[in-house]
Amino acid sequence: MSWFKWRYFLYLALIILWFIWFANMKVLFGSSDIAVDCDKNIEAYPVGIVLGARVIGATVIDGVYEDRLQTAINLYKNGKIAKILVSGDHGQVTYDEVNAGKDFLIKAGVPATDIFLDHAGFDTYDSIYRAKYLFGIDKALVITQNFHLPRALYFTEKLNMKALGCSADLHEYQNIGNMEKREILARVKAWFSILCNAHPKYMGETYDITGDGQKTWDQLSY
């Protein structure tokens, strides 16, 4: 192949790399504040949104998800949040992030009435969008790890939700490098989702986040 033809491949590669960089900068600099320690010096929020993560088998949560849930428990017991919304993937009978999270919270002593489940939070955008429009949440603490928070808070800002990000980094994670690499492309998708005014695959029934969370249990909200 001649240099003339290779040149166009080079230009295309440079354009793709620039686009990935551009989308990442939009997300990273378009997000709200992040608090490393939400247990101190912050006002109380009506709800904490726990973003789902991998479960092993049907119900065993991994370390990343456990830290998110434990952070929510600490915030709840310290009076920083009144309700907890667990948003994750429950698209299959054999894979259930939200009920695994709910069971973890119950075992830690969080009252059932204060635990809400969003069964169709299949990705971060769906979770934040549904929290806003199905659960009526305008103000929340968003609970996840530092690598994930900028993207989540980018969505809250663009969807006009007042949010503070709470770091759930309670441990070091063996696969953090891979998670951070995946986040680079996830930010590109995030920017496209906002640019295209995307809608979640499923919407559904609305709920009062100040009410009884048990109304959202064991029923898929789509």
Q: Would you kindly provide a written description of the structure presented here, covering whatever features stand out?
A:
There is one protein chain. The longest helix has 26 residues, at 3-28. The chain starts with a helix and ends in a 27-residue tail after the last helix. The chain has 222 residues and is of the alpha/beta class. It is globular and about 70 Å long. The chain has a single domain (22-216), classed as HUPs (Rossmann fold, 3-Layer(aba) Sandwich). Strand 7 (139-144), helix 5 and strand 8 form a beta-alpha-beta unit. It contains 6 helices and 8 strands; from the N terminus they run H-E-E-E-E-H-E-H-E-H-E-H-E-H. It is 41% helix and 16% strand.
Helix percentage range: 40-55%
**Strand-pairing-aware structural class:** alpha/beta
Query: In this structure, how is the largest beta sheet organized?
Result: 6 strands, parallel
Question: CATH H-level name... which superfamily?
Answer: HUPs
What is the correct CATH architecture? Answer: 3-Layer(aba) Sandwich
Described by the principal axes of the CA atoms, the overall outline is: globular
Average pLDDT score: 90
Question: Strands of the biggest beta sheet: in what spatial order?
Answer: 1-8-7-2-5-6
Q: What distance lies between the first and last C-alpha atoms, to the nearest angstrom? A: 52 Å
| Number of DSSP helical runs | 6
Encode the helix/strand succession as letters.
HEEEEHEHEHEHEH
Low-confidence stretches: none
At a glance:
This protein has about 220 residues and is α/β, with parallel strands linked by helices. Helix content is about 40%, strand content about 15%.
